[in-house]
Specification:
Radius of gyration of chain B: 20 Å
Shape of chain B: flat
Oligomer: heterodimer
Helix content of chain B: 55-70%
Largest sheet of chain A: none
Order of helices and strands of chain A: HHH
Number of strands of chain B: 0
Structural class of chain A: mainly alpha
Number of helices of chain A: 3
Structural class of chain B: mainly alpha
Number of strands of chain A: 0
Order of helices and strands of chain B: HHHHHHHHHHH
Shape of chain A: elongated
Helix content of chain A: over 70%
Radius of gyration of chain A: 15 Å
Chain lengths: ~60, ~270
């Protein structure tokens, strides 16, 4: 499998427990916590993607040889 | 139903009780007027640390690579839970002699015991916090938060299960234990060694018995070749331990509110 694709899949997988445990911490009740997971997951992944893009842009601008 | 505790109803200031316990196990209980309990707690927690120190000759921190050693390099270890013990070890033996020596045979067990002392003191802090907030005639319901947090550390999800939160217990266990196993498989067991991966091991320690059993049962397999997914495996095995802290905080918050009868007001 392509290295980049594999790492994206690993990232998407590991994001799940991070988001679910975060939701559990925020909501003592199971129902609201689990219902908030899809939105939290989307926001988490998109935010991380944004940070990654920003880092790549900064690298291209300031750190490339 | 108690809605919240006024400062005058408390036995003492919870923050002070926690902070003095962090530095000196049992001091919080002495501050709250529980002299005997404080002395017993001191002996138990520091006894664990001293036993671990003796078994390892105080050399556990020598597992750190020389370039990583510094004033704050041990703050990401479980020993931080027993701040006084950790500072004493750093003050007396530091990171060892300049010339490397063979490690004593008991260093791995000793490292587990000093780490366990750190977590035992965290439980003591939880108890001191609860004790400070508990008036003499307060209603007490459900399982003790101290027991629930200890259970949550021992086995991810067990604290939730003891609180009757079964679905959450199942999800927490499946996610954290599953990712730990996945990570250990990806890293081919190379993650199961404090000597090899000092900081990642500290994260795994927070997963309790599964991490301990994995280390004991596999015998810390040696690395004999290239590990194509070694880095990912380390992350996957370490992250569940860190996330178990969130689970323990969840268990603690709900447990303390139930114990004090303040859940409806939360």
């Amino acid at each position: 499998m392509n290295g980049l694709a594999a790492h994206v899949l690993f990232f998407l997988a590991l994001s799940l427990p991070i988001v679910v445990l975060g939701a559990f911490y925020s909501h003592p009740e199971d129902g609201p916590a689990l219902r908030s997971v899809p939105k939290r997951y989307t926001v988490f992944v998109l935010s991380c993607a944004l940070v990654a893009l920003l880092m790549l842009a900064l690298e291209a601008l300031f750190a490339s040889a | 139903m108690v809605t919240d505790l006024r400062p005058s109803e408390r036995r003492g200031e919870p923050t002070v009780a926690v902070l003095v316990t962090w530095f000196l196990p049992g001091a919080g209980h002495v501050y709250l007027g529980r002299l005997a309990a404080g002395l017993l707690a001191f002996l138990a927690v520091e006894g664990l640390y001293v036993l671990g120190w003796l078994l390892s000759d105080g050399r556990t921190f020598e597992f750190l690579d020389p370039e990583l050693r510094g004033a704050l390099s041990t703050v990401l270890t479980p020993e931080l839970g027993n701040l006084g013990g950790m500072l004493a070890q750093l003050k007396v033996v530091g990171f060892g002699a300049a010339d490397p020596l063979p490690y004593p045979g008991g260093i791995l067990l000793g490292g587990w015991l000093t780490a366990l002392s750190g977590f035992a003191n965290v439980l003591l802090m939880v108890h001191a916090h609860l004790l400070a907030r508990t008036p003499a005639a307060a209603p007490r319901a459900g399982i003790s938060p101290v027991l629930a947090v200890a259970a949550a550390w021992l086995l991810p999800g067990l604290g939730h299960l003891l609180q009757g939160r079964r679905r959450r217990a199942l999800v927490v266990f499946a996610l954290l234990f599953g990712f730990f196993l996945w990570g250990t498989w990806l890293a081919e067991g190379s993650n199961l060694s404090r000597e090899r991966h000092f900081y990642y091991w500290s994260g795994q320690f927070l997963l309790g018995v599964p991490a301990f059993l994995a280390e004991v049962l596999t015998g810390r397999p040696p690395v004999t070749g290239e590990l194509p997914r070694g880095d990912v495996g380390l992350l996957f095995a370490c992250m569940p331990g860190l996330l178990n802290v969130l689970a323990m905080l969840d268990v603690h918050g709900v447990g303390e509110r139930r114990w004090l009868g303040t859940e409806a007001a939360a």
